[in-house]
Design brief:
By secondary structure, this protein is mostly helical. Helices cover about 85% and strands about 0% of the residues. The protein has one domain: Fumarate reductase/succinate dehydrogenase, transmembrane subunit (3 helical TM bundles of succinate and fumarate reductases), CATH 1.20.1300.
């Protein structure tokens, strides 16, 4: 039940995070002043926190979508297996998010 609620919540949250990414891209195309502002906001500690949460939301929603796709194919839809998949979605999204940020920050 929590995984289903979170899948819906993350779908809505992705709208707001995508607006931030679009703002950054539009600012980059607009000019150096606009880009400096957007980049400054998004590279602040709060901006990085928001982007970290956004990337986790994206990964959780993606894994939830894969889970739903498998169910639509008639696979892994029994209660015990679907519970394991839901828990794996949360764990997998955390691992993927950390990996993305380690790669992005150049930590090897």
């Amino acid at each position: 039940m929590i995984a289903s609620i979170m899948h819906r919540f993350t779908g809505g949250a992705l709208y707001f995070g995508t607006l931030l990414v679009a703002w950054w891209l539009i600012a980059a195309a607009t000019g150096p002043g606009a880009f400096a502002l957007a980049n400054g906001v998004l590279s602040s500690w709060f901006g990085l926190l928001v982007l970290f949460v956004y990337s986790w939301v994206l990964m959780l929603h993606m894994l939830g979508g894969i889970r739903h796709f498998l169910w639509d194919m008639g696979l892994y839809d029994s209660k015990p297996v679907s519970t394991v998949l839901a828990k794996a979605s949360f764990a997998g999204s955390a691992v993927l998010t950390v990996l993305i940020w380690l790669i992005a920050l150049g930590v090897r």
